[in-house]
Specification:
The protein has helices at 28-41, 44-50, 68-79, 102-112, 170-179, 186-189, 192-206, 215-233, 239-246, 251-276, 283-301; strands at 60-64, 83-89, 92-95, 122-124, 137-140, 159-161, 182-184. By secondary structure, the protein is of the alpha/beta class. The protein has 2 domains: 23-207 and 251-306, 3-Layer(aba) Sandwich (Rossmann fold); 215-248, no CATH class. The protein has a 7-stranded mixed β-sheet. A hairpin with a 2-residue loop joins strand 2 (83-89) and strand 3 (92-95). Helix 1 (28-41) packs across helix 10 and helix 7 crosses helix 10. The longest helix has 26 residues, at 251-276.
């Protein structure tokens, strides 16, 4: 309505980069899911309760949904050392204990119209059957209420990461609490997209892309430090390592770094609340407590509450 306003680009996010968008927005939700689950998996006390070893590496993952969120979640888990053993879509599901490559499956679906009959994988006639396979991490990344009172008792995953909005019903939550399955809730886990949308908004208000001011300075400083180290030690760093060390942060590097920090701090905030309050039954309730406390504190400091 006011295209001439100096901050007009900030009125909507998710824009193409050429129209004021920010690099890293497309994969942000799936990457945020990975960062959140990875941080949970790095908590030894939580993994001990689940009977799992710390870290993402080596864990088996099932992803329901091969859209933008599911695709990127599968991609980052695979690149992080996990094994994606099953992928599900509305037409059915495929499984391979040796692991699946999400890009190869995506191209197969693009070519044939279905993920079924993917080379080396076993077809599952029902998409819902993939949710009941044995795995360490289950990522429902497509529809609401896909896990409910009827199929929750058959879910064998140790961790469920809600990449979709509301993939679990309240009845399923109650079942998982009793079974000792950890549910990482959607209200924070799939917030990577809106987090990076916030970064895009800040970029639009500042009228300069991330990294523009500091990239070359950082590269020059890193090159100088590296040169000093090589001179003092008399040893040369490999070309590949030199390129990595000297690299100054691009926009996508800074966006992903900000997203990673947001997801890590959010994970610890929720977990600390949960551990400090034995009456809180699950991580979802802890997340609500953290959120409500923030609103309550804000209102109190504004003098709205007596």
């Amino acid at each position: 309505m006011r295209p001439g306003d100096i901050d007009a680009l900030g009125c909507v996010t998710g824009k193409p980069v050429t129209q004021g968008g920010v690099r890293g927005r497309r994969e942000a939700t799936g990457l945020g899911v990975f960062f959140g689950i990875r941080e949970v998996c790095n908590m030894k006390d939580i993994m001990d309760k689940l009977g799992l070893k710390p870290g993402v590496k080596g864990k088996t993952v099932i992803v329901q949904g091969l859209g933008n969120v599911g695709y990127h979640a599968a991609k980052f888990f695979r690149e992080g050392g996990a094994k994606v053993i099953a992928l599900a879509e509305y037409e059915g599901a495929i499984a391979n204990p040796a692991g699946l490559n999400e890009e190869e499956v995506f191209q197969h679906r693009k070519k044939t119209g279905s993920i079924l009959n993917f080379p080396g994988a076993t077809n599952l006639a029902s998409s819902g059957k993939a949710l009941e396979l044995d795995c360490d991490i289950l990522i429902p990344a497509a529809l609401e209420n896909v896990i409910n009172s009827s199929n929750a008792p058959h879910v064998k995953a140790k961790i469920i990461g809600e990449a979709a909005n509301g993939p679990l019903t309240p009845e399923a939550d109650e079942i998982f609490i009793k079974k000792g399955i950890l549910v990482v809730p959607d209200m924070y886990l799939n917030a990577g997209g809106v987090t990076v949308s916030y970064f895009e908004w800040l970029k639009n208000l500042s009228h300069v892309r991330y990294g523009r001011m500091e990239k070359r300075f950082a590269e020059n400083m890193n090159a100088r430090i590296l040169g000093q180290i090589e001179g003092l030690t008399g040893k040369q760093v490999s070309v590949k390592e030199k390129e990595f060390i000297m690299h100054g942060a691009d926009e996508v590097d800074l966006v992903n770094s900000g997203l990673e920090e947001t997801m890590i701090s959010g994970t610890h905030e929720i977990m600390d609340c949960w551990k400090a309050n034995p009456k809180i039954p699950d991580m979802r309730t802890a997340a609500y407590v953290v959120a409500i406390n923030k609103v309550g504190t804000s209102y109190a400091e504004l003098g709205i509450f007596p």
